[in-house]
């Protein structure tokens, strides 16, 4: 055991390589807090979090003024105790996005440190259930993209061995969504999966209607059809359709997932390691979903989720959206359309700290000792 002696953090603002639009917003930048924890033996763990353009400075402020000072002198290996103590320290702002995203930066850093001390990769330290996870791509399915380009991207992904493509839905009339998805289905055939994502766009009646219209296309799932806090609406929708309903990227507590699962309001869990507050609660949600015989297909953060998915038996997909290539010395490993977790000690992310320091937002860095 070794006590935490130093915490450093900064924020990088990444611009997506492609234009990203969905039914409610445009993804213009990725604010990325990156945090490093050093213990008394000199072992360093690196963690991170993200937003899609708003809230990054608030996360950094919470880390600097509240959470980082509380880490100094704590036993770095007591990850569960630290996570719960920090959660209750921020009780007035929990459960919520900013607090969860700040906790995630710390929790992922502590897991990285733990794995490095043990000289083991995260996917084995956290469970070691799978060696590779199928990939589906989202990058070519944004809402503004023309139908012909959707088809081309899906065919390209299929040729690379990917198992599916996500197409954003939520055009003004359901007939537009049906036409776009039908064109992709006709091109890729019946065995290639088509995921859809409404980004919380619909009312309950519209979601039920659209699910009925999309059923003949045999989509893999209908993601975030309703506002994430409309639990009863998701239950009504799930009871009215044979389509799998996917939720999770906008849920911030394991208890929220429990309610969805208990009420049969979803059949795919998309828990996001940053938005749930780190690896510690992510694993709880994944194992909870397993007890309901529900798959985990996490949202975003593929470079970290590949190891977490490999750790648990019920992970079905990793979502392909490259995010941090400019901050690493090597990308996530892909073979025949599958994501392969790194065997390097730690999270499995090869950070390029020179690139990170060059890209840091001015004034965002701080050190706590």
Summarize the structure.
By secondary structure, the protein is an alpha/beta fold. The protein contains twelve helices and 13 strands.
Explain this structure.
- The protein is of the alpha/beta class.
- It is built from twelve helices and 13 strands.
- The strands form two sheets. Strands 4, 5, 6, 7, 8, 9, 10, 11 and 12 form a nine-stranded mixed beta sheet that branches. A four-stranded antiparallel beta sheet has the order 3-2-1-13, sandwiched between helices.
- Helix 7 (204-214) links the parallel strand 6 (193-197) and strand 7.
- The protein starts with a strand and ends with a strand.
- The mean pLDDT is 97.
Largest sheet: 9 strands, mixed
Question: What is the structural class?
Answer: alpha/beta
Strand content: 15-25%
C-alpha geometry: globular
Low-confidence stretches: none
